[in-house]
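Instructor's aside before we start: the two examples that follow are unrelated to each other. I chose them only because their records fit on one page, so don't look for a connection. First example below.
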Amino acid sequence: MIESTTTLNEAQSSVWDVVVVGAGPAGSVAALEIARRGLRVLLADRSTFPRHKLCGGCLNGDALATLRDLGLENALNQLHGEPLHQLSLHAGRRRLNLKLPSGLAVTRSRLDEMLIMAAIDAGASFLSGISLKLEPALPDDAVRVLSTQRGNTTERILARLVVVATGLPIGNATTDAGLDVVSTNNSRIGAGTTTSSFPPEYTVGTIFMAIGQNGYVGLTRTDNGTLNIAAALDSKAVRKAKPEGVVEDVLKEAGFPFTSEMFSGEWRGTVGLTRCRQVPAATRVLVVGDAGGYVEPFTGDGMAGAIRSGRAVVPFVERAVLEWSPQMIRDWKFEFQKLMKPGHRRCRILAGVLRYPTIVRGLIGIVSVMPSVGDAVIRQLNREDCHEMLNPRPGHSGAA
């Protein structure tokens, strides 16, 4: 369990340079880098840790490269994750195995803990079990006010800048124009669980993906002998049956082995997976990671984008704390979209294709005789997107 390093009373005693709301990968990476720049930063989350997250800890090549650039390679090694070598895609009787250039499967709770501890070690203060809401602000306000309820009392924390990293945006915890959440009609919902009881066919080093009429299911072995199950399911099907029932149907349709024990654990779900904010910024507020928008499917691109945006926001944070300008809203919107749009575009294309198992089976047939097509897709999903404001990786195609 990760203990808070400060209390609510202490957090209210002065004005913070930055308050990061949300201690997932995006928020923790942002807090880590902000603290390294010498700013006074509070990392806050409504949950206590460790916590179970629906999203597993599949880190693709881009995510791993960014974490190593941040000096976290030793910490990554201590997670004892399982290296990923292969994607095994099943749709009906069609099977396709594709080699992965890099990847690591870790327990998400341990990944979160590692990143939070790195931020704390860099000088960030950490406060868990607190739900913060942005109070209304005027364009010329010198600080943002975040409030929380403690009994019948409203407590307030002040910050020169707020970084919102609360994950998949569910509702509007603010009245700021532009931060409204926009969802996509007929978006699939997320559901998942972890289990220690599963057929031996689910071996380490492989991401197994089952494609069916009512959704798709990813299964990955992580450390400690557990299997992470994450699914994107049609909401209509889930309303007729429990998520585990729909997952079982998808696995059966794709020819994957399963047992009833696989589905006996605690299941968690989400609202529609594809949603975004109109603008990922407001007065003295910058939004990072999935809080700015998320597009199914589960490919590891979401984790990579979260980590990448958490790092990329730091130069904007420094500028905003030194001297806020409304231009910052437009600047961060431009950079955020440049960072996230390529991944979102890839995921939209994949999400569209995965709704039609017949098409998937046809594509599997094509890739089976033209492996280079599959290799090209895998390279796109694992590409290292280098941000030009940060130190480029030597030899990378995106380096200046």
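Example two begins here.
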Amino acid sequence: MSITVNLYYTGKNGSARKFAEEMVTSGIVEAVRAEEGNEKYEYFFPMDDPETVLLIDRWRNQEAIDLHHKSEMMSQIAVLREKYKLRLRVERYIEEPK
């Protein structure tokens, strides 16, 4: 069972894109990808909304997500989100085993 979480970060004056760029250059993205149970962690830029960045974040199961949420990276991400004054919208999808 995989769980996919779509996170839409929205800001002003390109701040969402700057946030994503700093997530990459700071090493946070690679650290999240290296976490046990992470299956995907990728940013996308919607063509019709230049002020939003979409993060597709997929995990093996809820336990992996819970461990990620308890990690030091979550506080680092929160600091960056505040730095860039971003709003967040979340969608969650669960893939049931066949």
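The mean pLDDT is 96.
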